[in-house]
Amino acid sequence: MESEKITNLEPRRWYEDACAAAHALDLVGERWALLVMRELIFGPRRFGELRASLPGISANVLTQRLAGLEAAGVVARRRLPPPASAQVYALTDWGMESEPIFQALGRWAARSPHHDPSLPFSAASLLLSLRTMLDAGRAGGLSARIGLRLGQERYLARLDGGRIAIAAGPVEGAELVLDGAPAAIAAAIYGGQPLAALEAAGTLRVEGDRALAARFLTLFPLPEKAGTQQG
Q1: What separation in angstroms does the CA of 79 have from each of 83, 198, 226?
Q2: What separation, in Å, do the N-terminal and C-terminal C-alpha atoms of the chain show?
Q3: CB–CB of 40/75 below 8 Å?
Q4: pLDDT band at 3, cuts 50/70/90?
């Protein structure tokens, strides 16, 4: 049974360094902390939902990380209104300011020769990657609504003026809907796997404007891999 009671917290280890970057690591540098924050960027989550999206984390470690982030002022507990009346965790306004950090880290780490894109990939990972990797030049002049059905989750992406906005919500009325696991959609966008092959395998469904789908897949080029030689 999952427990959310905050007990037996790990002792905090501080860098005792005045550098603001060092203090940032004081706040969010523990293992899993940043990934918990990543999962909350697109909205509040129940404890069980966080565990499901982070398959490698234990209930005890998740409890500790949530407690630490709450104590730091990055995460807050809330209660959903009836009929749900469930406790959820959400990023505070200050916590939401961390998204550019994830984008910078993601772009930097995507250049690593050791990055393995075949590892588990959550819905938040996919959505954040779209906001990070969008090429404004390629997307310029395109205005479209793309629905994303990611298991039980629904998101609507709006492309306009070389920007992409993504929010949870119904996908009805979108010109294009991609329906599949985040890893399958990532395989089409970043892995170069043909839509037809993913559809034939039953891992992805494409509804609506197929020409838009073909163009959408080209809007998120990955950066070149870093060389191993010193400059």
Answers
A1: 11, 39, 45
A2: 53
A3: yes
A4: very low
Say how far apart CA 162 and CA 33 lie, in whole Å. Answer: 32
Mean pLDDT of the chain: 92
Alpha helices in 112-174 (DSSP H): 123-133, 136-139
Strands 176-180 and 144-150: parallel
Overall average pLDDT of the 191-196 stretch: 94
**In this structure, what token pair is assigned to residue 13?**
């280890």
With helix as H, strand as E and coil as C, how does 187-210 read?
Answer: HHHCCCCCHHHHHHCCCEEEEECH
10 Å CB burial of residue 78 (0-12, 13-18, 19+) is exposed
151 Rama class: left (phi>0) / alpha (psi -120 to 50) / beta: left
Residues 6+ apart with CB under 8 A from 173: 145
Q: What is the distance between the alpha carbons of residues 200 and 130, in angstroms, rounded to a whole number? A: 24
* Nearest alpha carbon to residue 40 among 92, 76, 91, 87: 91
Pairing of strands 87-91, 75-79: antiparallel
Give dist(CA 228, CA 113) in Å, integer. 9
Q: What is the pLDDT of residue 148?
A: 98
Q: Which of the four pLDDT bands, split at 50, 70 and 90, describes residue 165?
A: very high
Confidence of residue 7 (pLDDT cuts 50, 70, 90): very low
The identity of residue 72, as a single letter, is A
pLDDT at 11 over 70: no
Stated pTM of the model: 0.89
